[in-house]
Amino acid sequence: MTGQRDSDPKQIVRRGYDAVSHHYRADDADPDSHRPWIAELTRRLPAHASVLDLGCGNGVPVARDLAAAGFAVTGVDLSEVQIARARALVPGATFVAADATTVDLPAASFDAVVCLYALIHIPLEEQPALLERIAGWLRPGGLFVATTGHDAWTGTEDDWLGGGATMWWSQADAATYRTWLAAAGFAVERQEFVPEGDSGHELFWAALPG
C-alpha cells in the first residue's frame, strides 16, 4: 500500500471500479455478511418502501434483493461500468451514475438509505456534509445502514484485487463516525465491528426521529 497520491481521489475511485468491477463482485454474488443486514432491513421496512442504495456498485446483492422484496430501489454509484451492470442485473430498480456528494435527490423521499463500503471512498472532509444530505433524503423515522471505517486511515493500493487499477480510501475511526451521525440528526441504534482480513469496518444502524 502507498500513501495518498497527488491526484483527484474521486477519479481514482471511479477509474478503479470501472476497471475491477467484475473482480470486485460477480453477477450472482451473495456475500455472507450482507445477507443478515438485508434480511433485517426487509423486516423493518413497510411494504413498497423506497430505498436508496448509495454506492450501489453492480446492484448485487443489495439492490437486487431489496427490489425482489418489492421495494422501490434507487441506486447511485460513481462508476459508469458498475451502473451499466446494475441496470442489466436489476432491471426493476432505478440507477444513476453520479457523485453521492452532488447528486440531486428529492428531500424526504426515502424510507431507508443503505451505504455499504462506499462512504470510505469519499474524501474525509466531505463525509460529514454527505451524512447531513442523507438525513435530508430520509423521511421521518427513516433508517440508515452504513459501513464506515473502524480505524482512521487514508491511502491507496496499487493493482487492487489484481485488476490492474489503483484504489483509494479515506476513513475516520468509528467514534468519529458516531459523532458525525449524531451531528447529522441520527440516533444510533447500534454499531458492530465487521472483520475483514487483518482489520475491518464498523456497521451502523441509525434512524431519524419519527
Automatic annotation (TrEMBL):
GO terms for biological process: methylation. One of its GO terms (molecular function) is methyltransferase activity. This is Class I SAM-dependent methyltransferase. Pfam families: Methyltransf_25. The keyword tRNA-binding does not apply. Signal peptide: none annotated. Transmembrane segments: none annotated. Residues 51-142 form the Methyltransferase domain. Keywords: Methyltransferase, Transferase.
